[in-house]
Amino acid sequence: MKRSHSLRSRMMLLFSAVVGFLLAASCLGFYTLLAHEVRAQLDRQILETAGPVAADLASDPTEQDVDDLNIPHQYFEVLDSGGRALRRSKNLPNGPLDLGPGPVNPSVTEYRTLKHTGLGRLRVVLLPFQRGGGIQLLVLAIPSRHADQVLEAFRGTVLVLLPLSLILTAALSAWYVGKSLRPLAELTERAAEMAGRVTFSSGGGGKALWSPLPVTMPADEIGRLAETFNRLAERVEAALAQLRRFVSDASHELRTPLAILHGETELALSELRSPEAYQQTLRLLEDELAHLSRMVEGLFTLSMADAGQLRLARDPLYLDEVLDESCALMTTGAQAKDITLQRQLVRDVAYSGDEVFLRQLFRIFLDNAIKYSPPGTRVTVRLAKLDGRLRVSFEDEGAGIAAEHLPQIFKRFYRPPRAGGAEPHSGGLGLAIAEAIAQAQGALIECRSTQGKGSTFTVTFPNENGER
Asked: Is residue 7, in this structure, part of any structural domain at all?
């Protein structure tokens, strides 16, 4: 297969060819204009010289001064109307001038260029004049070597300057094209390095997958391309880092319940036990399996959100009813810890949303509030309309969250230390799932917390115009 030239070579050749063509066309145009102007000036000079002589001959039919003329570089002849030579100046050697094969027209002034054996190239004017009742022609020839020398000098200059201009153009185009394409070459190299690190190194070898490209001209196309690739690479690197952390955290979280399941199963099979002991083991296994099931469902929900595939229905519903049902489902757990679940709900709040995901969203906040609240406290759930927007808040009287941990609580598998004790079977996915559901619903989550007093999570839903 024929090997293609590089983009730099093709651009340089194209640029040089275009410039070379324009230079050649310009030089040819200049030469044509110069040649026309030089000949026109020479013709005017001949005519200005021949005019007085023809007038003098026309005024005196017996005048024979042409035979005595001996002006340097000016050669005269007088022809009859048929083109036969009647007289000529004495400085014209070798007989009459050879005016060429074309016939002589005695009615118009005519210019010709001819080559004389002894005199070289001559520019000739044939000027008709009236003499003695007939028409004769005065022929004046002068050498055109000065005009030819001007044109020859111009041609020589062009033949020297044109190749030099092409060489200089090729050098400048190679430099400029190389400079312009350098970001693309660096982009290719960096992309190849990034691909190698992604392919052959799970952790990147401690190196960043992408070092930002320098952007010297951000306004042009290549500069914008480099900036776009820098942003793309940053996002790819962040996504890969998040994926590594996610896989590491998920494997760490799954290891504990799997180890419990394995240990309890081995213990149950190691020896005969009473029915009560088997029931207790089965209940423990059921709890761990339920925990694993919730974690897998949470991971699936988050993966759908990451892929932008978390699609929520927009069904008409009453938000207060969904919230009331969610509180009813959590009442048993709250009573088991002697926690009062108080509701302050505005009634008949119409809304369009996904009932299943909304119920899951509310249960996540209720579950966290109950788990992290000490016995004998209260969890307050509020639903209110403020400035045309709907706000649902979950307020507990637990240990609270330190200010330095608040920005991290919605990260996956992140569990801030709490004075009230950590949840033994928490997968650290609840708030991450809540944030994904809220974003898909167009809602905004805020958290206010004071250590020793409790936390308040507020979900602000958009109004009919999509404002939050």
From this structure: no
